[in-house]
Amino acid sequence: MFTNKPSIHPYHAFNSNADAEKLHKAMKGVGCDKDKIIDVLCERSNWQRQEIAEAYKVMYGKDLIHELKSELSGDFETFILGLMEIPSHFDAHQLHKAIAGIGTKESVLIEIMTTRTNDQIRKIKAAYDEMFHHSLEHDIIGDTSGPFQNILVSLCQGERDESHHTDHHKAKHDAQKLFRAGETRLGKDDSCFNIILGSQNFAQLYLIFDEYEHVAEHSIEKAIETEFKGDIRDALLAIIKVIRNRSSFFAELLYNSMKGMGTRDNDLIRLIVSRSEVDLRDIAQVYQQKYEKSLKDAIKSECSGAYKNGLIALVKGNH
Where does the chain cross the membrane (predicted)? Predict the structure, then answer.
């Protein structure tokens, strides 16, 4: 269903020792050459960055992350350190920040938990455990409640059907079930929405949404907006947006991170870094269509300096 066009691919003429040397030279003199850091780290894939970090330690007896931290600051530092994290650790870190910060950032929980594959969720859970010494599920339960907690815990199992098998008869039956669980009764049955939207494969859910429209004579989105409130409504709508058009979902999140007064830099960094090796090229294409402005131009108008250049390098890609 998804084309999956990343912007960053493994660099074809990769040499970890040569890259480690370039980074060392960039940080050795008075003042750090940020352009050289961008040239190396924004042109390599994540596994290549891990190899560069290993080579750096062997060649110079120093930890590359520590060196980058001492040389960089502000949003550019956050961006580069994000690039250096293994994706599962990066996501685990983002989830922990969203939960442990002042007030849970529900939007981050929704974004990550609704868009990662089963395998990614299992890796995130293992990384979370290793980094914070307790489980992601434990922290979600401790920090959320009600139907929103239930859907997140369901997604946290990483057990969604990932086949492309579809069954029209079952789709009709499930659409009827959702209709009865929401619009035809006093007090909705949250668990029915949770079971169907949290576990079935995307192709089947697409069919269910079409069938729902026949039954209810309006979209499932309209039903959820009417029947649900707050975080559970946002989570269910996010699942539907991801199923209908994942690139459009992320384009909207990117747009929201840059609109209005002040850029939400943590959101912008997370979105660009986490999608660069998955589907950032698709997202940039949809962004241009939706907002009649290229993603690169949007970043140029909102960000500055090396931070802006690094983000644009990832959007532009390395091929």
Answer: none
Q: What are phi and psi of 312, to 5 degrees?
A: -65, -35
In this structure, what token pair is assigned to residue 20?
């480690």
Integer Cα distance of 69 and 80 in angstroms: 9
CATH 2.40.10.220 corresponds to the domain 168-228: no
Residue that the structure tokens 């960000």 belong to: 303
pLDDT tens per residue across span 99-149 = 987 666 999 999 999 999 999 999 999 999 999 999 999 999 999 999 999
Classified by CATH at the fold level, domain 16-84 comes out as Annexin V; domain 1 (1.10.220)
| pTM to 2 decimal places | 0.94
Q: Please list, in sequence order, all residues whose beta carbon lies within 8 angstroms of the beta carbon of residue 297, skipping any fewer than 6 positions away.
A: none
Assign domain 87-156 one CATH number from 1.10.220.10, 3.10.20.30, 1.10.150.130, 1.10.730.10: 1.10.220.10
The residue-averaged pLDDT of 290-302 equals 97
CA distances to 175, 198, 303 from 204, rounded to whole Å, are: 11, 12, 41
